[in-house]
Amino acid sequence: MDFSFVLGQSITQALGVTAIIYCLAAMGLNLQFGYTGLLNFGQVAFAAIGAYSVGVVVISFGASLWAAIPIGLLASVALALVLGIPTLRLRADYLAIVTIATSEIIRLMVRSIALRETFGGANGINGKMGQAFHDLNPFHADIDIPFLTWTRQDLWVVTVGWSLIAIFTLAIWLLVRSPWGRVVKGIREDENAVVSLGKNAYVYKMQALILGGLLGTVGGIVWAVAKQSVQPDNFVPDVTFFSYTILLLGGAARVFGPIVGAIIFWFLLVFVGEFLNQMISAGWITFLLPTDVGPIRFILVGLGLMGLMIFRPQGIFGDKRELALDAR
Amino acid sequence: MPANGQRALAAQAVLADVPRVPGAPKPDPILVASSIVRRFGGLSAVDVTHVEIQRGSITALIGPNGAGKTTFFNLLTGFDVPDEGTWSFNGRSMGKLSPYRVARLGMVRTFQLTKALNRLRVIDNMLLGAKGQRGEHLWASLLPFLWRGQEARNTERADVLLKRFSLDAKRADFAGSLSGGQRKLLEMARALMSEPELIMLDEPMAGVNPALTQSLLQHIKMIREEGSTVLFVEHDMDMVHDISDWVIVMAQGQIIAEGPPGDVMKNPEVIDAYLGAHHEKALTESGQSLTTGDTT
């Protein structure tokens, strides 16, 4: 059994493209749910908007990637407004219901046969939609050092991806320790109290929804650029729930929570999967088939996360005293 | 009593000549409301023909449970919308104004169920009350040099208020770790951070122990001495007697009496509202009557 291979795969994935995408989505949820208390159960819709903007603009309409990105961001703001205008005046549950429904509507819409010309139906959009980005790649060779193996393309995506995360994290850090952050945290605790002090809670909630959605959209853009393919069934509600898992794992309302959460989540998922695979191929485990590994790793990681929530409910970075206050 | 200063005497002197009738006009009203009606289905929860609140005074809004006091509060502060009626604050019409705009104009309220922001520190609760903060704008918040100075001045003011309300030792604690009474104090102090002209307290003394009640009463008097107007809801008439310059009594959504506390408590209509109209009649077959002079 090749343990260093298992470890290498896990570390590569934990710092890889998928972890970056989920980290961005979870950062958006952190702003919305962790700080402002908005229950967005449709973060995947924002990611889908980003990915499909790249696919549609570049492949279906043959325009530039550099046009696709701002179009994607604008579409994301538009989606946030559409979701927020009717629901943010209501109780928190309404946003949750509307967002999860919308994320499925968007997935089923881009999957539909009627719109196959534009969105590619169930096959999605495939083609060199990220070429303009990869043309800028300054790296000349793949990387293959111990525990890290990336192609030249992935290395470039990962470099830019983590740089973006660093910039956004700095921005969020500035935001949440400013008076703006104080207002949104106040809204999370009790919206009416904040309103009674003369703050327009509606506007703050809308701002948080838009900013969090934009982060999800950037994740979707990274997805399309890195994988050069967008398929409707990549954008199932599971993506949102994994993002929430990552957020709670790292600790909600903690600036570094999503980063640590994403790294640990993907490390564990890949580690468990590869470890089981190796044990099966080495003949140590005989009661499982290689095809069972996919679901079983989720079961095992899920059990681990349940343990975390029982023994460290505040997540890795959270403050337990703060959590105890919820039990009023 | 140190807090019974000049403003108290001035308020009482001004109100001395006001007729003791519901809807009486005041010499210098800060708040005027006319024909406010709020119906919940067939029930008129609030049906106020006319009411004026004297500037610089402490006015108590009392009445038995279910009289519509809190609903009336919600209507005046924009948290609920009346079916009919107009009201003005400082001469400015307030109909259909969002609650946050009402607060910005200087009419700040607290809540019956205290709304301390639990997972915010006490000092952050206070700072949230400050008005016109530059750092509360999304873009400015990213540039701390734009708001640092203002934040420091607000913090200074917040610390003075915390000291006055004896919460300075709790400054860095989460508001959720405070006792019920301390939360009431914090909510009042937080409302004062916005320097309101009219502060509306919804049952500030509910669920507070007697010692703390005394301290709360002193704080309310201090607010008047500083030139703000206080309107507060209470249903315990004894509390009201001690601090209010003027008392407005509500029952079944209507204002049934107005006057200085001493007069109001002798008013038979008020006693009826609290104890029921038949409280002096015989309840038992033997004809034993239940008489009551105590109104609490």
Q: Could you characterize the architecture of this molecule?
A:
The complex is a heterodimer of chains A (328) and B (296). With 328 residues, chain A is mainly alpha-helical. Chain A has helices spanning 3-14, 17-35, 43-60, 65-87, 92-111, 116-119, 131-134, 152-176, 179-189, 191-196, 201-227, 238-250, 257-281, 293-311, 320-324; strands at 125-126, 143-145, 148-150, 229-230. Chain A has one domain: Orthogonal Bundle (ABC transporter involved in vitamin B12 uptake, BtuC), CATH 1.10.3470. Helix content of chain A is 70%, strand content 3%. In chain A, 50% of the residues are buried. Chain B has two domains: 6-116 and 195-275, P-loop containing nucleotide triphosphate hydrolases (Rossmann fold, 3-Layer(aba) Sandwich); 119-177, no CATH class. The interface between A and B is large, with 30 and 44 residues.
> Could you estimate the helical fraction of the residues of chain A in percent?
over 70%
CATH topology of the largest domain in chain B: Rossmann fold
| Average pLDDT of chain A | 92
What does the largest sheet of chain B look like? Answer: 6 strands, mixed
- C-alpha geometry of chain B: globular
Main beta-sheet annotation of chain A: 2 strands, antiparallel
The secondary structure category of chain B is alpha/beta
The CATH superfamily of the largest domain in chain B appears as P-loop containing nucleotide triphosphate hydrolases
In what order do the strands lie side by side in the largest sheet of chain A?
1-4
Flag low-confidence runs of chain B.
Answer: 286-296
The mean pLDDT of chain B is 87
CATH architecture of the largest domain in chain B: 3-Layer(aba) Sandwich
Shape estimate of chain A: globular
Beta-strand content estimate of chain A: under 5%
User: Percent of residues of chain B in helical segments?
Assistant: 25-40%
**Number of folding domains of chain B?**
2
Count of β-strands of chain A: 4
Poorly predicted tracts of residues of chain A: none
- Annotation field: number of helices of chain A: 15
Count of DSSP E strands of chain B? 10
